[in-house]
Structure formats: structure tokens, C-alpha cells
Amino acid sequence: MSHPGMPGTQPGPDGKPAGPVGAAGPASPEQALAELRAGNRRFVTGEPRHPNQDAGRRAAVADGQQPFAVIVGCSDSRLAAEIIFDRGLGDLFVVRTAGHTVGPEVLGSVEYAITVLGTPLVVVLGHDSCGAVQAAREADATGTQPPGHLGAVVDAVVPSLRRADAEGVADLDGIVDIHIAQTVEAMLDRSEALAGAVAAGRCAVVGMSYRLAAGEVRTVAGAGDLTAADPAARAAA
């Protein structure tokens, strides 16, 4: 990881150049979310621009980075954030674990991005048909524990299963949505730095679910100023 350095150029929500990173790039949670939504629309419609993926961008960010969003995503091989959101080098600070489970290393990585790099948006990115959630569901139903460190993934998902039971949610994708919201809340509860940045309006957190077949992301949870500007996040919050 490196500290902010040389600026690069990235497109705005309409795909046109928005100027140097850190200058005219996304500086607020709302702007950052708009960039992600615009990129996902391009990906879904089959019109990606593949921004910031050339030699010029590589050179521009070689000495520093100012990503506009942190993506805490599931490790599923079909959930590559830069592709889903049509972004490039230096745009996204990506942390991935099975089932987007959150431990100290994940929280430390998020805190680095928001406190050192000044990243204004944190996204928890889950997806339908999540294998980690399904594995936890099966282990919980049978009373068996997976071998090795897989048990840690199951244990991290179990609180979401309990919440789903309490809310009467039984379908897998409904449980996934709850798990995404649970992860957002857990991060805010466990990280004073993140909660403080959200309270101060410097950062926001949003939970999104990706549809594997359609390629679309939708908002299922949110915390911070972006919920006032994003109807989907406001409804989910």
C-alpha cells in the first residue's frame, strides 16, 4: 500500500474525463456511489469503457493512490469489482474474503483506506447464490463444523442466519441480503474510525448485492449521507 501521490485521470458518471484523481474525481460519498452505478450500468449493457487501464494511468498512479471507494467483497471468482463497476488502476481499494466476512485484518484495511487515503465510500459487496452463506446454513442445520479454517467463515455468517430466522426469512438470497446488512452494521460497530468518519460526513457505507446472471448491483443497506440522495439506500437503511 502507498500514500496518496501523483494524480491520474478518471471519467465522471457520464464516462467523460472528470480530471485528476483527488482534484475533480469523486470526493464525496454521493459522487463515489454515482461513479460505481454508472460503471455498473456500462457493464450490464455491454458498453464498458475500461477506464484507467492504460500505460498512462499505470504511470500516473505508480507513486501513490487515491481510490474513491473501498470494496469489501466476497471472494467468489465471479465478483471481480473492477470489471463489475468498469473501473481501472487506482480507482478501487478491494478487500475480499469468503462471504465478505470481516476480521481484524479486513477492518484494518478499511481503516487504512478511509484515514490515510481519504476514501469517501465503503461498499460491502455480496451476491446471490452465495456459497459461503449456503455452507453456513447447511452446517448450522446439521450441527456439523467444516474442517480447518472454514469453520471461521461459518461462524462469521451464523449471526446473519439467526437474524434471518428472527425475521422469518428462509430463502437463500433473502438471507444473503440480511448478511450484507449485518456486515455493514458489524463494521460500524467494530471500527471506531469508520463510525467516526460516517458520523462526520466524510464517509458513507453501503451494502450492495450483485446478480450473477444479470450483472446488476442493487442497494440493500446504507449508512451515512448518501442515504439522503439514494432512494434505494434510504429505503434499505
Describe the structure concisely.
Helices cover 44% and strands 17% of the residues.
Topology:
Elements: E1 9-11, E2 17-20, H1 29-44, H2 55-60, E3 69-74, H3 81-84, E4 92-97, H4 104-115, E5 121-127, H5 131-142, H6 150-166, H7 172-190, H8 192-199, E6 204-210, E7 217-223, H9 226-229, H10 231-236
Parallel strand pairs: 3-4, 3-5, 5-6
Antiparallel strand pairs: 1-2, 6-7
Keywords: Lyase, Zinc
EC number: 4.2.1.1
Pfam family, one: Pro_CA
| CATH topology grouping | Beta-carbonic Anhydrase, Chain A
Strand residues, percent: 15-25%
How much helix is in the residues? 40-55%
- Strand segment count: 7
What kind of sheet is the major sheet?
5 strands, mixed
Tell me, what is the CATH class? Answer: Alpha Beta
Count of individual domains = 1
Family: Belongs to the beta-class carbonic anhydrase family.
InterPro entries: Carbonic_anhydrase (IPR001765), Carbonic_anhydrase_CS (IPR015892), Carbonic_anhydrase_sf (IPR036874)
Catalytic activity: hydrogencarbonate + H(+) = CO2 + H2O
Keywords: Lyase, Zinc
Q: How would you describe what is shown here?
A:
The chain is an alpha/beta fold and 237 residues long. The protein has a single domain, classed as Carbonic anhydrase (Beta-carbonic Anhydrase, Chain A), CATH 3.40.1050.10. The chain contains 10 helices and 7 strands. It has a 5-stranded mixed β-sheet, sandwiched between helices. Helix 6 packs across helix 7. The longest helix has 19 residues. It is globular. The two termini are 32 Å apart. The N terminus and C terminus are likely disordered.
